């Protein structure tokens, strides 16, 4: 492990979270101005076998994938292969069905398309057939008028963005990541992991269920979803998830005063928008859930990245430095397209073109920060003003109350050290 003395408080926070039992295995990495200044790892990669977490242990980081997929599409836009302001149907004609002819690529990237749910159940046999899942979405009508509201497209973001990428390049997001980003830059990052990587990937452990004697309740919104975009009890070990983060309108048809209360009510409703959005395709249908090799190799562009903390931090280091996107492209991508109450998550969220911006759902110490969190606690982020690239991965999934502050605490320690 390595930690520049200037960042000693980061190591203190990392070690304290292990000492307090918040972690099973985890890694945290920071690049400052292109230099690796923090590279920490500890714990157990697989609690069943006792396999230790090594320097090169990768982990499945759920929606941290969305920032990587956005960079792939934006790079294609730089090449003139796609116009993000143009209708999706220009490159994917079938998508125009059911009133979606005016939906733009920008709407897909900023969660405004009104397609947060795959309405038709996706069979397990189709999990590795992304074009087939995309075709299901192309047939659907939007839940809301596209462009009039935003709501987190937890899984559908990837199938939509991924199909645009495939239509204009002939390749998948994962293939382009390997050929044009991770390969040339030497990053330990895969959107669709090969067998040799799957064999050493950390095994996720489902979140501990809160009990009456467990963690005290909190009203801090960061403890609900700071670096997580999904269930309180995750399907990492094959169990069905119950989400605390979503639902529909209040029972009386009007917005509830307290979004946290609406989230709590939605957690009990299997038909709530977020429960439906997160549950199809259903990872829980596979033995081991997200640990199953089918998921690890499928390369879903919304939830499919397998990476080390160093690989994720290195990705954002390279985005910030201009190695992946031109500075003007990044600047335009970070301009918030939506900012306010989320139709799926309830809490205020903010998005540029595929990247999260600071909000209640993405609490950052700096307004310049951008990136994406992943269900259970993982986080990838960059800061062009501070020239930072940060990555955090772990295998003990957060239940949103007892473990939800791990990544924000580490990020705060980084900024406090600057």
TrEMBL record:
Region (Disordered): 204-241
InterPro entries cross-referenced by the UniProt entry: Beta-lactam-related, Beta-lactam/transpept-like, Beta-lactamase/esterase
Top-rank taxon, per record: Bacteria
Domain Beta-lactamase-related: 11-410
Residues in the signal sequence: none
Name of this protein: Esterase
Organism: Nonomuraea aridisoli
């Amino acid at each position: 492990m390595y930690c520049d003395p200037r960042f000693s408080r980061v190591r203190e926070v990392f070690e304290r979270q292990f000492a307090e039992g918040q972690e099973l295995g985890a890694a945290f990495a920071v690049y400052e101005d292109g230099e690796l200044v923090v590279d920490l790892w500890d714990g157990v990669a697989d609690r069943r076998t006792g396999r230790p977490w090594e320097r090169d242990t990768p982990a499945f980081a759920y929606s941290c994938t969305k920032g990587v997929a956005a960079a792939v599409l934006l790079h294609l836009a730089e090449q003139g292969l796609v116009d993000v302001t143009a209708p999706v149907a220009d490159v994917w004609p079938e998508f125009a069905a059911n009133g979606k002819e005016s939906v733009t690529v920008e709407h897909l990237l900023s969660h405004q398309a009104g397609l947060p749910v795959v309405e038709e159940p996706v069979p397990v046999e189709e999990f590795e057939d992304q074009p087939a899942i995309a075709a299901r979405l192309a047939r659907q009508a939007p839940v809301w008028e596209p462009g009039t509201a935003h709501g987190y497209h937890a899984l559908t973001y990837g199938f939509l963005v991924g199909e645009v990428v495939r239509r204009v390049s002939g390749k998948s997001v994962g293939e382009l990541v390997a050929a044009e980003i991770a390969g040339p830059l030497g990053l330990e990052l895969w959107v669709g992991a090969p067998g040799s990587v799957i064999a050493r990937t950390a095994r996720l452990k489902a979140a501990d269920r809160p009990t009456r004697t467990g963690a005290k309740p909190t009203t801090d919104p960061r403890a609900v979803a700071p670096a997580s975009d999904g269930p309180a009890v995750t399907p990492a070990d094959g169990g069905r998830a119950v989400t605390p983060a979503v639902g529909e309108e209040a029972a009386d048809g009007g917005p509830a005063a307290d979004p946290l209360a609406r989230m709590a009510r939605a957690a009990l409703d299997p038909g709530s928008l977020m429960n439906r959005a997160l549950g199809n395709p259903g990872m829980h249908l596979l033995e081991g859930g997200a640990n199953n090799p089918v998921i690890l190799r499928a390369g879903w562009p919304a939830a499919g990245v397998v990476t080390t903390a160093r690989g994720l931090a290195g990705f954002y280091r390279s985005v910030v430095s201009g190695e992946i996107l031109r500075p003007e492209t990044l600047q335009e991508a970070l301009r918030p397209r939506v900012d306010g109450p989320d139709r799926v998550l309830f809490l205020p969220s903010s998005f540029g073109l595929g990247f999260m911006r600071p909000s209640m759902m993405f609490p950052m110490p700096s307004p310049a920060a951008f990136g994406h969190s992943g269900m259970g606690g993982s986080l990838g982020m960059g800061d062009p003003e501070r020239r930072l690239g940060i990555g955090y991965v772990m295998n003990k999934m957060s239940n949103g109350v007892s473990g939800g502050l791990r990544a924000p605490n580490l990020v705060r320690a980084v900024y406090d050290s600057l």
